[in-house]
Design a protein that fits this description.
Blueprint lengths: L1 H18 L13 E8 L4 E3 L5 E6 L4 E2 L4 E2 L4 E5 L6 E7 L6 E13 L7 E10 L17 E4 L2 E7 L1
Parallel strand pairs: 1-11
Antiparallel strand pairs: 1-2, 1-6, 3-4, 3-7, 5-6, 7-8, 8-9, 10-11
């Protein structure tokens, strides 16, 4: 009978150990996001460029449509492609030429240090393509895409 209680005790300790694991995932488990802000050089403030349609096209010509301007954060939150190493964002405004933002990067898939987190994705070498129609502005004294957290990147362009 004592043997039965020992097995239950060990089982309870195991359950407690598993439940005490926290969210310590180091890789991106969701879709990475690019926060794109537009700088008005006259007022030196970010502005809403009021595009009528914004969408993304990945390397397989799959379209992610209906990307809206985030009025609370004054930026567009653009999803990166998880299936290709490049994505093109298209910005349309009535009766004006189309603007494009092309970003290339290396996807790195790796298992997280914590086995419960599973397979994660990180982005390396996130670069603004020279074919982009936007001009980068200085963000923290850098004229490029900045990684600000695990799966968030930021870019400030001149409007």
């Amino acid at each position: 009978m004592k043997h039965f209680y020992v097995i239950q005790f060990i089982f309870l300790i195991g359950l407690f150990a598993l439940s005490s694991c926290g969210d310590t995932c180091t890789g991106t488990t969701g879709e990475p996001i690019l926060h794109l802000s537009f700088l008005d050089t006259i007022t030196n403030r970010t502005v809403n460029p009021e595009y009528s349609r914004v969408y993304a096209i990945d390397g397989k010509n799959e379209i992610k449509d209906n990307i809206d301007f985030n009025l609370n954060g004054t930026d567009y939150q653009l999803p990166f492609s998880t299936v290709e190493d490049q994505i093109t964002y298209v910005f349309e405004r009535n009766n004006q030429p189309v603007d494009t933002l092309i970003v290339t990067y290396d996807r790195v898939f790796q298992f997280d240090d914590d086995p419960e987190c599973g397979l994660g994705m990180n982005l390396n070498n996130v670069i603004l393509s020279p074919q982009t129609s936007f001009t980068p502005a200085s963000f923290n004294n850098v004229f490029a895409i900045q990684q600000t957290s695990r799966d968030v990147y930021e870019l400030l362009v001149i409007f």
